Amino acid sequence: MEKDESLTTLDSYKLNVFDTIVDITVSRSFSGFSFYNITIQNITPTTNVILQKIRDEFVTKVNLADVQITDESGFDAMRGQFKKEILVLIRKYFPNANRKTMDLLMNQIIRQNIGLGDIEILLKDANLEEIAINTSKEPLWVYHKKYGWLKTNILIPEENRIRHYATMIGRDVGKEITLLKPLLDAHLLTGDRVNATLYPISTKGNTITIRKFAEKPWTITDFIKSKTIDYETSAMIWLAVQNELSLLISGGTGSGKTSMLNVCSAFIPINQRIISIEDTREITLPSDLHWVPLETRLPNPEGKGEITMLDLVVNSLRMRPDRIIMGEIRRKREAEVLFEAMHTGHSVYGTLHANNVEETIQRLTNPPIDVPKMVLPALHMIVVQNRNRRTGFRRTLQLAEITKNGDASIIKQLDMAKDQLVDVNEPQAIMDTIKLYTGMTKEQIVEDLREKMSILKWIVEKNINNVDRVGDIFRKYYARRSVQGDSK
Question: Which of 78-87, 295-304, 340-349, 421-430 tops mean pLDDT?
Fold first, then answer.
């Protein structure tokens, strides 16, 4: 962007980060570049220069090698631990500062020089989904829920600082990143997923990519209000989950697969035992569900202690589950065990990287997953999620059922021009399965779908979007149906 190019402000808001007020401005240049700027109130460039001097003195007195902060409690503990040393230095350079100013300066010193610096400000912004450090030679980038990728005014001053952050993050969860092991997959204590690479594997410099953990889990209300899905398709998925049909959610990276998995899982009746299996905890279900979350573990530096996805899938079958939720299906043996679980009466839900229904079938039946096509009918439904990279909108692209011969029949598909889901084929296999196991007629199933749609409309009208409150409504619905003697 040219220095004299004017900017149009798209959005502005404030964040409170450890009692420091931060102004956020999202803007766009005439040439189309978009920016995300932070301004810390009462911290001028001159003050920053003095704070750097304080930092230089501080590090000579304190060993920072083993210090890490990845959540607010860690920040508070470190603030208390080094309070005396920092206050002495602040009084030296700011003798007339009042208590409020001293607290502001203290928080700034700790955040910049002990924690993750200004990255912690970005972690506090609920509007952001991704934080990307590409090199010390260019500013950080963020992915904003509304405005997509934005270049920030935050710059990590040196490659060693980026590497230090990566080492610190890895060490906190028992992982390491070195020149011999220059790739790191880890997570912050807050649940945010972290990937890091070291130069020269990443040729421009060291990198850190943080996928933020959603502070507020997505609910069906959020999906419908954002036009990610419509009422009719939501009701059909609800009907399938209620009646213990297995389903797979596919889509590209960032398309909302895990969010959709979270939404669908909330439809599970309260009296059933759920086992979830993930590499990193992302699923959040209503608190009153009978739910046991499991998480994989990488081997330690000596190569011991690894717990794989397959280990957990096999183990979950010994835990008397009614429903098994798997974060992502990647390998043949995992898929074989899951399909075996489906055939033995368990309901299974999982995600898969594939862009449409046809690609989903191809991925399942070809290496590295490579399950026989003849076993696919155990999987009843496929939901495909899509993210439009131009607009940033996430939508349910396709809803399909698996026929008796293992093919997929698309029931609903997104009309991109109209931005709405349209009917493609009448559901047949799903209807036959529900009729077989519940005794309901087609007319009763259609009426059941209408009732579900009316409940969903009421939830959206009341703007009930807390995962526990939504879960409570479904729990009461199932309780009423049980009293009436209807299907499960």
Answer: 421-430
User: What pLDDT is recorded for position 488?
Assistant: 43
Give the pLDDT of residue 2. Answer: 46
Name the CA radius of gyration of the chain, rounded. 25
Per-residue pLDDT reduced to its tens digit, 450-459: 999 999 999 9
Q: Is omega for the bond preceding 368 within 30 degrees of 0, making it cis? A: yes
Residue located via tokens 């790739």: 183
Question: What is the per-residue pLDDT for 487?
Answer: 45
Residues 6+ apart with CB under 8 A from 367: 332
Size of the chain, expressed as the number of residues it contains: 488
Q: Answer yes or no: do 103 and 251 share one domain.
A: no
Residue for token pair 């506090």 = 124
Residue 379 belongs to a domain with what CATH number?
Answer: 3.40.50.300
168, 185, 211: which is the final residue of a domain?
A: 211
- 102 and 248 belong to one structural domain: no
Closest CA to 226 of 237, 234, 235: 234
CB 190 within 8 A of CB 71: yes
Residue 315 structural domain: 220-484
What secondary structure does DSSP assign to 208-229, as a single string?
Answer: EEEEPPPSS---HHHHHHTTSS
Same domain membership, residue 340 and residue 231: yes
Q: What tokens were used for 310?
A: 């397959």
| Same domain, yes or no: 145 and 248 | no
Q: Is residue 1 part of a domain?
A: no
Q: Is the Cβ–Cβ distance between 285 and 471 less than 8 Å?
A: yes
Tell me which DSSP letter residue 395 carries. E
- DSSP at 417: T
Is the whole-model pTM more than 0.85?
no
Highest mean pLDDT among 25-39, 300-314, 409-423: 409-423
**In degrees, to the nearest 5, what angle opens at C-alpha 167 toward C-alphas 162 and 171?**
150
152 with 243, same domain: the answer is: no
Task: Please tell me the total count of domains within the chain.
Answer: 2
Q: 244 — alpha (psi -120 to 50), left (phi > 0) or beta?
A: left
Average pLDDT for the chain: 88
